[in-house]
Amino acid sequence: MAAASPHVSEPEIDKGGASEADVAGRSAEVPVRIVRYDPAWPDRFDEERVLLEAAIGDWALGGIHHVGSTAVPGLDAKPIIDILVGVRTLEESRRSFDRLAALDYRYAPYRSLEMHWFCKPHPTTRTHHLHLVPSDSPRFRHELALRDLLRTDAELAERYRALKHDLAARFEHDRDAYTAGKAEFIAAALARSAGVRSSG
After folding, report:
1. What distance lies between CA 177 and its chain's CA centroid?
2. CA–CA separation, 40 vs 18, rounded Å?
3. Which one of 5, 70, 118, 168 is CB 3.0 to 4.6 Å from 105, fit for a cystine?
4. CA-CA distance, 127 to 80, in Å (whole number)?
5. What is the pTM of this model?
6. 8 part of a folded domain
């Protein structure tokens, strides 16, 4: 099996050519908008975590984590809370779909070999993204590693902030291009982080 993509901040174009916009519907795509960091974002995650623990805690063996740019204090971001749930297997976690639907999470079959991807409450008005990812997978490790790296490296976080603003200005109406534009930066950051850990 091919290794998981190191790009982890949001869905990207998959191996079969389908993108987030394809699975959610092109008519549902909204402009890319980066806003200043909101101190309320961690509280919004905590409120959602409580709901998710009650609804799907039986499957969340790897924990429920705040990831993505809204999880990094001071970092500008799209105002959507990204949530990572570590599950045992993708097949087993399918049984949680009905409970997630009751919380207004909408499933889209995006990168379905790596994760189960959801948005809430609707593709046109997203407040949350949810990833159910096997906790022993590279993608699970990468999502947490990128968050932790950006939290601890202020210079890296500032360069990432500048890149996101530049990409959002250039690709305001092309979410796939915006996402693809971050891939090289993220891959390099994760590779450097892995190198530091191995040498330490």
Report:
1. 16
2. 33
3. 118
4. 5
5. 0.85
6. no
For the chain, the distance separating the N- and C-terminal CA atoms, rounded to the nearest angstrom, is: 29
Contact, 37 vs 74, CB < 8 A?
yes
CA distance 147 to 161: 13
Asked, for residue 48, whether it belongs to a domain, the answer is yes
Query: What is the maximum alpha-carbon separation in the chain?
Result: 48
The stretches of the chain forming alpha helices (DSSP H) are: 20-24, 41-56, 90-93, 97-102, 138-152, 154-170, 175-199
Query: Which single residue is written with the structure tokens 């959002």?
Result: 168
Asked if 101 and 114 count as a contact pair (C-beta separation under 8 A), the reply is no
Domain count, the chain: 1
Percent of the chain with pLDDT over 70: 82
**112-144: pLDDT as tens digits:** 899 999 999 998 889 999 999 999 999 999 999
Please list, in sequence order, all residues whose beta carbon lies within 8 angstroms of the beta carbon of residue 133, skipping any fewer than 6 positions away: 62, 84, 85, 86, 87, 114, 115, 139, 140, 143
Q: Residue 112 is part of a domain; what is its CATH number?
A: 3.30.460.10
- Residue 145's CB is within 10 A of a number of other CB atoms, namely 19
145 conformational bin, left if phi > 0, alpha if psi -120 to 50, beta if neither: alpha
Domain assignment present for residue 3? The answer is no
Its domain, for residue 73, covers 20-199
Which residues are CB-contacts of 35 (< 8 A; sequence separation ≥ 6)?
76, 77, 78, 79
Average the pLDDT over 1-9 and give the result. Answer: 39
